[in-house]
Amino acid sequence: MRHSIVSLLLNAATGHRRWPRMWRDPEPRPHYEAIVVGGGGHGLATAYYLAKAHGVRDVAVLEKGWIGGGNVGRNTTIIRSNYLLPGNVSFYEASLRHWEGLERELNFNAMVSQRGVLNLYHSDAQRDAIVRRGNAMRLHGVDAELLDAHEVRRIAPFLAMDDARFPIRGGLLQPRGGTVRHDAVAWGYARAADRLGVDVIQQCELLGFEIERGRVVGVRTSRGRIGARRIGLACAGHSSQVAALAGLTLPIETHVLQAFVSEGVKPLIPGVITFGAGHFYVSQSDKGGLVFGGDLDGYNSYAQRGNLPTVEDVCESGVAMIPAMSRLRLLRSWGGRMDMTMDGSPIIDRTPIEGLYLNAGWCYGGFKATPASGWCFAHLLATGESHALARAYRLDRFATGHLIDEKGQGAHPNRQ
Amino acid sequence: MSARPGAGARLADGGLIDRTRTLRFRFDGREYAGHPGDTLASALLAHGVHRVARSFKYHRSRGILSAGFEEPNALVELGEGDARVPNTPATTIELFEGLDAQSQNRWPSLRFDLRAVNRLFSALLPAGFYYKTFMWPAAFWERVYEPAIRRAAGLGRASGAPDPATYERSYGFCDVLVVGAGPAGLAAALGAARSGARVWLVEADCRAGGRLLAERLAIGGEPALRWVEATVAELESMPTVRVLRRATAVGRYDGGVYAILERVGADRAQSAPFEPRERLWHVVARHGVLASGAIEQPLVFENNDLPGILLAGAVRAYANRYAVLAGRRVVVATSCDDAWATARDLLRAGASVEAIVDQRPAAARGPGAWAPDGVPVETGWLRRARGRDRVRAVEIEAASGRTRRVACDAIAMSGGWAPQLQLATHLGERLRWDGAAQCFAPESWPPDLSGAGAVCGEFGLAAALAAGARCGTGAARALGFRATDLVLPAVEPDRPLQTVPSRAARAVRAAFVDWQNDVTIADVQLAVREGFAASEHLKRYTTLGMATDQGKTSSLNGLIALAEATGRRLEELGPTTHRPPVVPVTIGALAGRHRGRHYRPTRLPPAHAVAADLGAVFVETGPWLRAQVFPRAGDRGWLDAMCREVNTVRRAVGVCDVSTLGKVDVQGADAPEFLERVYASRIATLAIGRVRYALMRREDGFVMDDGTVARLGERHYLLSTTTAGAVDVYRHLQYCRQVLWPDLDVRLASVTDQWAQFAVAGPRSRELLGRLVEPGIDLADPQFPLLAAGSVRLGDGTAARLFRVSFCGELAYELAVPARAAHRTLERLFEAGAPLGVAPYGLEALGAMRIEKGHVAGNEINGQTTAADLGLGRWTTKDGDSVGAVLARRPGLADPQRPRLAGFVPVDRAQRLGAGAHLIALGAPRDAAHDEGYLSSVAYSPTLGHWIGLGFLRRAAERVGERVLAHDPLRGRDALVEVVETPFVDPRGERLRG
Amino acid sequence: MRIPCPFCGLRGHEEFVVDGDATVTRPAPGRPDAPTAAVRFVYLRDNPAGWHREWWFHAFGCERWIVVERDTVTHAVGRVWSAGDPAPGEDR
Questions:
Q1: Is the ipTM value over 0.90, yes or no?
Q2: Domain tally for chain A?
Q3: Which residues of C touch A363 (CB under 8 A)?
Q4: Helix ranges, B443-586 (H)
Q5: One domain, residues A258 and A333
Q6: Cα(B124)–Cα(B213) distance, integer angstroms
Q7: Closest CA–CA distance from residue A412 to any residue of chain C (Å)
């Protein structure tokens, strides 16, 4: 059933008893043309674009739990393309363009809301870096505006501008940045992929690969063997474990990133704002909660939870930036497993095993990348060739030295 | 006992309130009065005020549901102006004189709320309706739909202003932490404390007792509160025990760390002087005892959200603790024995019980299910409540199918009690449904945590006391204390609750499962129909359990409804994961004192006061405050001051405080070998008494930091690092020493704070220093040439170090003195230099001069550049195995096409340059494909009289003399620039040699 | 999380800086496969879900780098020893 105000009205008349399932609950078939491992945003988007853009509809998405249960359902919902380095700007900008048309593409309102992303700066050196980045964006045709302190104050009068440890001198605004209702992205892709014939198979855990003479021919799962000669891994958070089943070691560590939401309040913060004097980013959801986050806890973790010092550190930055946050209350905090690569940028590439493809290492920028990641990974799975947008995200760049290190932190995944 | 006529719903006597004092308060602008011991909720109920809120989505009238922190409905804004706090449950607000509360999420008023029109459209607003519409036209989402949704959503209003209150963080350590001072918690604390163990007992309420405060129970033949008071008194008399009231354990973290929020000033409008509003405790406990009790669950029927419909235990709490009748004609509806006690307590207080409706057939009821004669008892359930802003009647559907209508002004309902196990799951532990106890329980308790009382499904006083005592003594024994068993006072034998799963209504839109998020049973069924049948999917699709109460009164009913809709059993459904905190926590309390100007420590170099006296303007550089410029009267801005300072240095002598540079003392027989390995530059050849510029690489081959290495002795070196790199470099050096090469004989110490350092620069610097050092020390070239380093004694006896290094390109020295001598030495430099025309110079002048000399700094050493990129390839050794040497040879790093450092000057010398502009060949399209580099640092050169810049450009070495475009669309400021060699000033370094 | 520093005793983990995998060893200089070995050392990680060994630096304490055995799933902390020492019970 198509979603629209008309269908909503018709269904209201029948007590909403006729809405169909958003996606089927199929039994896995013995063989597919392609398998995507991981029913998160990236995996579901990959399956959708395989079916939609490449006509490959004989596809299964294997999810060990329930779809959207990983980072697509536990991030801070920010979308933006305000990157510095060439490989990144064009990729994330392509992603942002997908976001802009996503609702019509999927017939599912994921509440893509372009209320702007504002990065604050506090020193001359930060201004220089932000100008360099903003100009890189503009050269890529991406919207970017430099704001002085006066302009920042005008759009965000609640910021601690001067009476602060690190006074705010200005900011870089990307007006087209914003937020998306994160869960809806997984559901929207799943529903749209399902309608094109993709089997979204939940409660199906990958146990191993079947590899014959260096080529993958299928997977063993908790629901039996499934054959396929093209298999894409999109299971960030567990990439190392899954890759290890195929004998691969990755340049990835898994870390915990906490996220936070406050109690709901009437509109206070217009768009997304990031602090420059500490790692902190915040937006306000349509329900009214302030959604915010900060740094990694710093240690390797698969626990999906962090510890108190980081909670406090993030709240310190929040109150330092927006003093009015002090009197609001933290409602929930949670943690996600981050595939942290050694240069802070993702990997979309072939692996040494023929037919096995890798989409991993999204650090904590994976959510905004969802559409472009699916788009490029589908291209790779369908054609065997890297998409032009993702050509920089090679697995061998660590050996060749063609790193994409936005922050210049080097091989310290916990500082990326 | 009976309700006092004409005095609202307050009973004539009884209750834990102080009737000798009256507190005046306001709600929605109207004045009321209450007593100490009241909550805002009980005081409003005493005045017959039931409707206190509007619901989130449909703006239905809502009343007070509970008597505790689980309250989903009665959220209010407290205080005004910058002190306003939204979303506080009225049931947790202790009444104080002058309290001022407002209802929220209604417009224009609570009584007349225009948004209640949403109720008319409720058929159009089922769960997830927004995913299905608002998609056309696309531009309308941000401009029309979303702003409307955002205005309508949200609960109360944030003050929007800085918080005037203060908060603090404290740390505690104990052997046994007991959470909850109900009967189980008190017994546990006593059992552990008598063994000598250090015990903390934390209670969220303002007084100990837990559920005993709300009941009419006896312990040892006396009212239970006597035992509570005696127990608390004994605990508080022990030096090893700490009892915190108004303190909620909100989170459990790894290693036995608990976050405890103490609401210090919760009982008054303003905190006492020097007292925080709230205090966040980190308590490290070797063992935790969870005695956090249980929360009663509502029943699901149509219009179950009307004001006047309360939890049965809350009705009992209002009657017994606050002496307030929630209604005079009450229907009690239940699926367990417990609510029958509400009927009895209400009758005793003089109210009328119109009916007791029990879902269980008579045979399934326990011994607690008895009522005095004359109370009608019905086996059945509630079908629909009637009323608009207050319940007026209820339709009861008997098991036989017969329906009758009963008039009432309140309903006391109970769907059983759900243990408050949040803390037991914060480290990822799972819960399972215990069919016998009809509640969730941990699959297993972690070794350092145990539970006692209702939290374990042990509903009953005797069981709670016994379990508490067992847990307390058991925990103490396990930690090595000798604990003796408690002799417990006699209590009435417990009666089992005999709960049955409460029956959920069929698809009824106004049968609420989650009050605060307006989720109905129909929403749950719709979600299941659409495939959201996993409990986490249900939660996310319907928002069930995601409100400020985190599902305390809704998650269980949601799961029951999910089980019914999917034909599964509760045993098969896991509950959704609870996330800390247990109750919402003030963000300011988590930030503590680290806010505003104290957000991060401010580091001051030891002679900071001297710069302040000289009128310096300071600027934040990382944790430090450093002098930016020293303005003088007549300066038109910082540029004038900077130019004057540069000119002083280039013509006479200037002094700059460079104490913030990192300094590391390195000693040991293997110190030369160690430094040879950690620096990319050659160190082994450095002679004693000499200093050298050196580059340090990360293991990945990129430049990490630069600085100097001075050899003070055969086995003694002093390194300097950049200000920004000081901490990381020192840690890295320790890593190299301890982890990579533990066998080398080297010792490291950071001496950044121990030594102050001043750059003394300019043609007259030698003359100035000559006036400071002890007579007889010759600083002339043969004795102290360029790159000499050594100890000198100053005239006042200070043992100092002197380095002949120059960042600005002039004859210059850096003079280091112990931090304690910094102030007087800097003053002395200015005194002695006055006749020579000395002036202080700040970061702006320092920066301009280093650009004039083509030196790199943080904008260039940004973690993305190689030594070759920086034009510093000559400072790296070709061979050897220093850190980063191998990976620096990777093709991506060794690529000659990488942008290299060069100098740039505007072709039109009057034009200014901007750092961050990108470099594009003349005539090439201005797009990313033709981006060839960027300007990293720019400055106005007072020496040259125009702007200059450093930047990175592809094949820069071949392009000297070429003109390129410095493209700055962000600022709309393009400049035609010429590629030049650096340094800009004194390229042959003649001035350096003095 | 609490880390039992072998020099300072049980301390909150916020006193430490954690930086990296302690199961990889810097390749000896001059070996023929130096570039590949260096890439493995700097970039490739087993990244176990379970027990792991990491380097922690007691920045606000003794300034010692220590090896901490820690379970990355449960955050349980096991054995701890100083840099330069063999693991307890293991030969260097």
A1: yes
A2: 2
A3: none
A4: 461-478, 521-529, 535-542, 555-566
A5: yes
A6: 45
A7: 7
